[in-house]
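Q: I'm building a small set of examples for a reading group on sequence design. Run inverse folding on the following structure and report the sequence directly after it, with nothing in between.
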């Protein structure tokens, strides 16, 4: 075999390895991106479920707590913010607002023993708690996917492939204001 033939075989082998690396990296990035999009879809489904439950819960509380107009207005504002949110950061901000408002709503409900005993209210409250748990799980799954995708996009040599094909880092779905989450909501009557 001639030297030229050996050089051509080595070059072909190197090109084959490079092509396989690019294909493998690209497929890995697509898989991670699709997982992140699936996780985001799960979050939006649960947020929609919660926004659908909230009017029923508010109506249950309204019958007992007619003078708590400010709480009901804040619930409506928070619900609207979630429904109109675009992207992870905007949705996280609206989500944080909703969590605070729901704490206020449940604090109002605590002041009315007959409401706390109402079966419809109790069922709605349980469904909302279940939905909140699902939102938290979906958020963790989404953030895990974002972490994996962003790590792959930012590490060498996959970052070269990510740059060639336009893969972008995604935003985490973070709690925006830690103080509002760590401190209880104060409700005054």
């Amino acid at each position: 075999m001639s030297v030229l033939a050996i050089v051509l075989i080595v070059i072909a082998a190197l090109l084959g390895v490079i092509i396989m690396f690019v294909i493998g990296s690209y497929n890995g990035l697509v898989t991670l991106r699709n997982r992140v999009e699936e996780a985001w879809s799960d979050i939006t489904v649960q947020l929609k479920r919660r926004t659908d439950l909230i009017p029923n819960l508010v109506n249950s509380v309204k019958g007992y707590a007619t003078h708590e107009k400010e709480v009901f207005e804040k619930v409506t504002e928070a619900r609207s913010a979630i429904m109109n949110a675009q992207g992870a950061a905007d949705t996280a901000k609206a989500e944080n607002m909703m969590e605070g408002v729901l704490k206020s709503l449940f604090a109002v409900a605590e002041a009315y023993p007959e409401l706390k005993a109402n079966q419809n209210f109790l069922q709605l409250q349980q469904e909302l708690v279940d939905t909140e748990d699902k939102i938290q799980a979906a958020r963790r799954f989404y953030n895990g996917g974002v972490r994996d995708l962003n790590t792959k996009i930012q590490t060498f040599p996959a970052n070269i492939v990510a740059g060639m094909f336009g893969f972008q880092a995604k935003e985490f779905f973070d709690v925006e204001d830690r103080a509002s989450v760590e401190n209880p909501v104060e409700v005054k009557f």
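The chain has seven helices and no strands.
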